[in-house]
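User: Teach me something about this protein's shape.
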Amino acid sequence: MKRIAMFSAGALLLTTVAEAVPPAPPPPKEIQQIERLVGKWSATGTIKEGAAPFQVKFSWDCHRISGDYGVTCNAEILGIPDMPVYRETDLFGYDPGGKKIHWFSVTNAGETHDHQAAPASGNKMSFVYNGIQKSKPFKEVVDITFGDNATSMHLVAETFLEGRSTSFVELKGKKS
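Assistant: First, the predicted structure itself:
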């Protein structure tokens, strides 16, 4: 009987505390842009490094995190010569102070990039990363254009070393 009384008192206390805590504010509207990534994506396309392009298969598995304020994704690309599987882990979030969407990525090719984008007004997000590679200025530009209802996407990425294009990626995919 004592256990039931203690359980009832504890449940009442928790209910009272839960009612006293105001609900968290909804994430800012800029978060809705990265929420379009949530889901499992499959894509095919090409990567061109040098003279001949090669065909690749791309998968991206994205989930909400941190109370719906961010998105994390795990990507795999198959078909890159001399690399059985290219793996990437991504973290997307919005910085209200800088008014930028950030896309942090880490790959099994030893890359770590903080891509940044201004909040988009339509279906396209344009990310840019500026860094150093081989002691030279390096830039990566990634444009992701979503179809209606964010069930399809077209991703185009180009990298530049000292201002010269070094690779071009084009992927088209769907969310399952």
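Now, about its shape. The longest helix spans residues 2-20. The mean pLDDT is 90. If you'd like, I can walk through any region in more detail.
User: That's plenty for now, thanks!
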